[in-house]
Write a structure and sequence with these properties.
The protein is of the alpha/beta class. It has 16 helices and 9 strands. The strands form 2 sheets. The protein has a 6-stranded parallel β-sheet, sandwiched between helices. A 3-stranded mixed β-sheet has the order 7-8-9.
Length: about 300
Amino acid sequence: MKIGFIGLGTMGASMAANLQKSQYRLVVNDMRKASADNAVAAGAEWAATPRDVAEQCDVVFTSLPGPPEVEAVVFGPDGLAAGAHPGMAYFDLSTNSQAMMRRVHAALAEKGAQAFDSPVSGGPKGAQSGKLAIWVGGDKPTYDRHKKVLDAIGDQAAYIGPIGSATVAKLVHNMSGYAIQTVMAEVFSMGVKAGMDPLELWKAVRQGSLGRRRTFDRIADQFLIDSYDPPAFALKLAHKDVSLAVGLGREVGVPMRLCNLVMEEMTEGRNRGWDALDSRIPMKLQLERAGVEIKCDPAAVQAVLDAK
């Protein structure tokens, strides 16, 4: 079986190399032919266009910067869609938009092919080592059929749901990370300006409850199961802690925009009479604004935690 790979940049080149290490025969393409030199030297075939890749392969991967590049590769002149054929499976490893992947899925379905949004997480080092999460959305039987190929790229390939689901998971993951890093910058600047050595500060806080637990595991106990009573830590006490932190920021002259927003959320929660409920109860305010409800089965949540 020939596998197509389009996009041999920082991430793509490493993922393609891992496919070759697993003895898969590759047909490659990139807008810069020189980017394919290493893959070709290792035995890959060069294809002049994405259409040529699709026509020769049963499985095709793309690793591209974003939606405009995916659109050009799939729908452009001599694009992937033009060469798609019945039974072909296309996995886009890029961080893409849900709307784009649904459009791609519909276009390839007309040719009897299956498209998958398959964003990866692990960065360049993970792409080199194969320690990558690959979240996949699309047709489950086709995913199962090609799972072994995905395993050659990353050690944590997982089926998420229908087309577009994996894109949502990736965007939630990345946006969470960037939001957290922004808060980290804010609170660390406060800590350093208040007199702490940054290395000693980091060394200390990473041993606290936040540092000892996986970031996303923290929402399992209350938020996912919609249970805030009895509290693990009461909102009234958490509001006190946040007030002290924001107050210290004022004292040392550090702007703390995000932390002040956190205090506003907590204050609204207290105004609703939630003092004795768990400190995560203000998360429900955002659910109200979004018009969504989250209430997972506690046993199902625990099963996910136990499976890690």
